[in-house]
Write a structure and sequence with these properties.
This protein is α/β, with parallel strands linked by helices and about 200 residues long. Helix content is about 50%, strand content about 10%. The protein has two domains: about 120 residues, HAD superfamily/HAD-like (Rossmann fold, 3-Layer(aba) Sandwich); about 55 residues, no CATH class. Helix 6 links the parallel strand 2 and strand 3.
Length: about 200
């Protein structure tokens, strides 16, 4: 079997809003009447770490935050807006993943996500048909770049570290993967999967 390839999601496979690739919350205030700073200070900064590591559920935490920062917006409205606006697939990356699988490489997603968006990615966006599985932080209980995330993947794949390749746009995640013994590529704009893998 060829080496498993682990793909980060946001910043590698996904690149912002479907219509233009801009940040998902670019028009948040105009569209929903919520300032990005209010969402950051009232939700993401105090609550996201517990959500993305599976300690607390997204819906109840966001519901509580919205009572203060945007009582006029329902939690489902914001979640729908969020997920829809963070779903632009880089088709070149997707096609390269298909080629890798055709060549015998298992391809997995390795991503910091809560349970709901992980399910959205795999089921609603049908990524389950494009990959051999997903490793995500809420299910593991740890997020990249913690060593526990990488150790979990090692156990799940029954692989030695040097047989795994991670492609990720966050440098700290890449450095941690290398420290764990994996091969890792720091993904930058303009790169292609075949050329990046050729550097290993």
């Amino acid at each position: 079997m060829q080496k498993p390839i682990l793909m980060d999601v946001d910043g590698v496979l996904f690149t912002g809003r479907p219509q233009d690739g801009a940040h998902l919350f670019t028009d948040l205030e105009a569209d929903l009447g919520i300032s990005l700073e209010a969402l950051q200070s009232g939700f993401f900064r105090p609550r996201w770490s517990a959500i993305v590591t599976g300690q607390k559920p997204l819906v109840s935490e966001l519901t509580e935050a919205l009572k203060t920062i945007a009582p006029h917006v329902s939690v489902q409205t914001l979640i729908d807006y969020w997920f829809k606006n963070d779903s632009r697939i880089d088709t070149k990356v997707r096609d390269a993943m298909r080629d890798l699988r055709a060549a015998g490489h298992p391809v997995y997603l390795a991503t910091n996500q809560d349970h709901l968006r992980a399910r959205y990615l795999m089921e609603t966006l049908v990524l389950a048909a494009e990959v051999d599985g997903i490793f995500y932080s809420a299910a593991i209980g740890h997020k990249k770049p913690s060593a526990e995330f990488y150790a979990h993947v090692d156990r799940a794949l029954a692989s030695k570290g040097d047989s795994i390749v991670l492609i990720d746009d966050t440098e700290s995640n890449v450095l941690a993967a290398r420290a764990h013994g994996w091969s890792a590529i720091h993904w930058l704009p303009g790169m292609t999967i075949p050329a990046a893998l050729a550097t290993l």
